[in-house]
Amino acid sequence: MRAFYGTELSGPLMLGTAQYPSPAILQAAFEQSRASVATVSLRREGAGGAGQSFWSIIRDLGVAILPNTAGCHSVKEAVTTAHMAREVFDTDWIKLEVIGHTDSLQPDVFALVEAARVLSEDGFKVFPYTTEDLIVGERLLAAGCEVLMPWGAPIGSGRGLANPYALRAMRAEFPDVPLVIDAGLGLPSHAAEAMELGYDAVLLNTAVAKAGDPVAMARAMARAVEAGQLAYAAGPIEPRDMAEPSTPVIGKAFL
Amino acid sequence: MIIILNGERSEVKATDLAGLLVERGLTGRVATAVNEVFVPATARAAHALADGDRVEVLAPMQGG
């Protein structure tokens, strides 16, 4: 597995912390998922101090923390949020989201590249939420990113890999760069497909948190990413149009 | 003085950012911004507040 800014992850699943029915279910889901990374965010603190109890929960998960800039629509907003996240979560990792389109939550890749440059120069280790566009990928790498996180499908849509052809091309184009499919996955088979393409990790949240049984779905996802990872390493056969008998023809009896 | 604290108009006694957090009991793990500019924890005591300042106090929250 490729290292993420010098860090070897213990497993290829990154799991979000939002939308679970309860903190206990979130904790159980993390345990079953064998996730190596938890994504988190920053929001206004209320008088009750809800953020402080959440902080103690995620700290106890024992996984790496990846704060996001979710909901940011401009370079300035994303950069300021990243600075605040670095202080609160005590990490220089940042999942950089700069949203350009309200309905699809498609990243504004132009603002994304600029924000990535500013943050990289400021010592951040940027995990950019991007599209499958190869030129944008090159620009992000030139801006200082050492990881790329193309979307599978729009956030929360559960549609799986909308453009496997382009994602395969991205894997081929950037053989040395850790690549993560971020967003849009709904099923374990989607996660397995991402890993079978040779991606280094998948990042998902809604597929687990909003499942009827999040803990069981977390377990399913853990097995799916492991299966996909093993399959990629094992060297899958090439698909072909015509049948080819698997049982030897030579030695068949004349009956 | 009157400031906008996390989007709400608030009357406060504190004259600096560190004092504001104490006054409002926001002393946990938080990050602050004043008028859309990040103010690191180490700079809060020296950051004087002015009437009408927009102060954001953010804390860890669930995210995807």
Q: What features would you describe in this structure?
A:
The complex is a heterodimer of chains A (255) and B (64). Chain A has helices at residues 23-33, 50-60, 75-89, 109-121, 134-142, 164-173, 188-196, 206-209, 214-234, and strands at 13-16, 37-44, 64-67, 93-96, 125-130, 149-150, 180-182, 201-204. Chain A has 255 residues and is an alpha/beta fold. Chain A is globular and about 85 Å long. Chain B is mainly β. Chain B has one helix at residues 17-23; strands at residues 2-5, 8-11, 31-34, 37-39, 54-62. In chain B, strands 2-1-5-3-4 form a 5-stranded mixed sheet, with no helix packed on it. The longest helix of chain B has 7 residues, at 17-23. The N and C termini of chain B lie far apart (38 Å). The model of chain B has no long low-confidence stretch (mean pLDDT 96). The A-B interface holds A 16-20, 39-47, 49-52, 54-55, 58, 67-68, 70, 76, 80, 83-85, 87-89, 155-156, 183, 205-206 and B 6-7, 24-26, 28-33, 36-38, 40-41, 56-64. Strand 2 (37-44) of chain A pairs antiparallel with strand 5 of chain B, so a sheet runs across the interface.
